[in-house]
Protein: Solute-binding protein family 3/N-terminal domain-containing protein
Organism: Aeromonas salmonicida subsp. salmonicida 01-B526
Amino acid sequence: MNGKWIWLCWSLWLAPGWAVETLHVVTEDYAPYNYLEEAEIKGLGTEVVEAMLEEAGFEYNLDIYPWARAISLARSRPNVLIYSISRFPEREDQFQWIGVIAKINFHVFALAKRDDIKPFSELSQARTWSIGTVRNDALEQYLMGRNFSNLQRNNNNEANMLKLLMGRIDLWPVSQESANYYVRQAGYDPSTLKIVHDIEDFTGGELYVAASLETAPEVIKRLQEALATIRQNGIYDGIVKRYR
């Protein structure tokens, strides 16, 4: 190989957008999709994202933060991936959307013993009660966008669950899977809670992995191809089955 060809190869490899860089991957505590256990970040979403990154061949650092900090990093720095994130119009232009990593449906929960809180058909009926939300997450923004002012903002859903159990909030909007996980972690049975409303017009029932806007298009393409590969070769389905 002559010297010019070697120089050209290295120039392409090191050119902006082509160099393989260490990615910073951020998430929040939102079990069972992503959560911290014995100093290790686990969960369905975590396993899917790590399998995608391994398939793509990228090195990465993975950190778990309060959601407000995680999403701020993903909005402001290059080469940042964020999961598990809901996709809706207000966020569409804030990230590069790599793909779906999990299905999800959201509900509004109350304590089963609260006979004064009956199931309701319209979300607007929840204005009567105090609602626990996670600061700056999609559900909180969804409620704020509908002019809800009866929100108690917290750093994570574990705090929401504890406040619900202690009677410090009345309602908790969250997925069934997450509610079950946090209640069991606190030593209670999921039957301690009841669903009083299904949130049907929110997010389309999907969680994504996304990248910051300054992440190179070549990186996005490679990650999208890797995500498609683990869906095709059975790795994705194997991960999902472990969390059913």
Notes: Residues 217-232 form the longest helix (16 residues). The mean pLDDT is 90.
